[in-house]
């Protein structure tokens, strides 16, 4: 056990407090002069000098020289000497005798001795006695006593721990500040998980940041790491980087790893690799994985594999998962399955999902299902969605819907779309709309189109506009159609074109029809042809109708038959009429059949 307290508190009189402008460390000559002065005074019978000399020798490690001085001062009633005599005896291994002298000093009012006595009792499992003496020290303002009392109370789950931890932190104890910050951090996390938006979590995080700062400023490397993480989440990347750097230079591997990610995100992969290497060499699996991914991106697969193995050896299960991904990309399916299995058995949910996909692709749905289930139960959103697909493929719609709903609740866009479609089939438009909105907001063009269709069916009929008569009013459904159309959804593009045409906006209608047609939409090609024909460009219209008819559009074939008949090309007209009859629908087939018969009679006349 070290000498209790700093020089200013060890003797509890303040007589050795250094002036603010005087260096704390004396040179050897100064120490020797001071020791000689105190020795002369002690030999002359000065009790205070005996106590001070004993403390000086104890601090230097001269136990044999210190003991007689401290015993003499103690016998004369010096409580600081009694405390330090206890320290000396504790260092010699005489714990019980040391405790006796600490008790004498503590009863005389020594806070340092009360702290030492409290720790002595705690080490022996006597918690009531430990609490009594530590409380004595803490209530006298002893920083270490306050921290030790807080630690004891926290161990017992006593709510009074925070008060004393705060007292120690306010007096400059860096570990107390760190632990106080961690306590606030955990409370903030619980508040966030509780979902209550009452401002509690932000205030707790603010308190955590304050105490992390105090501990970090005093050189606590883990506090600097956590402070950096808070600042990074808040977007203060520059300051976060400074604290990560401080922590990393002090040997905190997690900070070195975090600094690497910060540098990578800033585009400085070379510097990131330096810090990842430093952390990985100290056994940080996350940094080893990051190095593996970096080399994999560069095509350096052997080096990537070496770092993934290092991550795995460091106990990071992501290493096995990443090895599986690497093997899968190289077509080494058997090795990929091996690594996925290793990670999956260790509880890696995404590895379980990847393994299930591999088995499914190999034609083993029975083997894939339990791995999908394991991954989904562990929280893999993709696995829950894949289970939905698996059950839907078997016609087990209720089971499929259950897994789709689970994935959708976790924010899976395609799962929300599938739930929306299923609820539409059941006639539950309200639930369907809610899920379609989620999926559309998540970027699904199909969801945006289906949502627009749902809203479109509800709106009252709009006033009909003549072509060329502009109108700028747009409904919500048209905005969703446009979102889907801008994402390349062909049916949405056709619908946006139709709505633009209905508003009289010929230019916009033509633009969207053309986009849809060029993307392969036969309806888009047909409607573009109609628009061109109305504008007097029938030859170009015929080109688009031909494309639509070749894609199976019956009305386009009928239009071509009429164009050829009007232009006197009866045989071509008859051929397109025949095509329209076969393509349908029924109304078109009936009209095309009459036209074909008329053209046949005309040709045979």
Explain what you see:
Helix 2 runs antiparallel to helix 3 (47-60), helix 10 (161-170) crosses helix 11 (174-194) and helix 27 packs antiparallel against helix 28 (476-486). The longest helix has 21 residues, at 174-194. 47% of the residues are buried. Residues 1-26 have low confidence and may be disordered. The chain has helices at residues 7-10, 28-43, 47-60, 63-75, 79-92, 95-107, 111-123, 127-139, 143-156, 161-170, 174-194, 200-217, 221-234, 237-249, 253-265, 269-281, 285-297, 301-313, 318-329, 333-345, 349-361, 365-377, 381-393, 397-409, 413-426, 429-441, 445-458, 476-486, 490-503, 506-518, 522-534, 538-550, 554-566, 570-583, 586-604. The protein is mainly α and 605 residues long. It has 35 helices and no strands.
Proportion of residues in extended strands: under 5%
Give me the Rg, rounded.
41 Å
- How much helicity do the residues have? over 70%
Query: How many distinct beta strands?
Result: 0
Distance between the termini: 123 Å
User: Based on helices, strands and strand pairing, what is the structural class?
Assistant: mainly alpha
Mean pLDDT: 89
Main beta sheet, described?
A: none
Shape: elongated
**Which residue ranges are poorly predicted, with pLDDT under 50 across at least 5 consecutive positions?**
1-26
Counting DSSP H or I runs of 4 or more residues, the number of helices is: 35
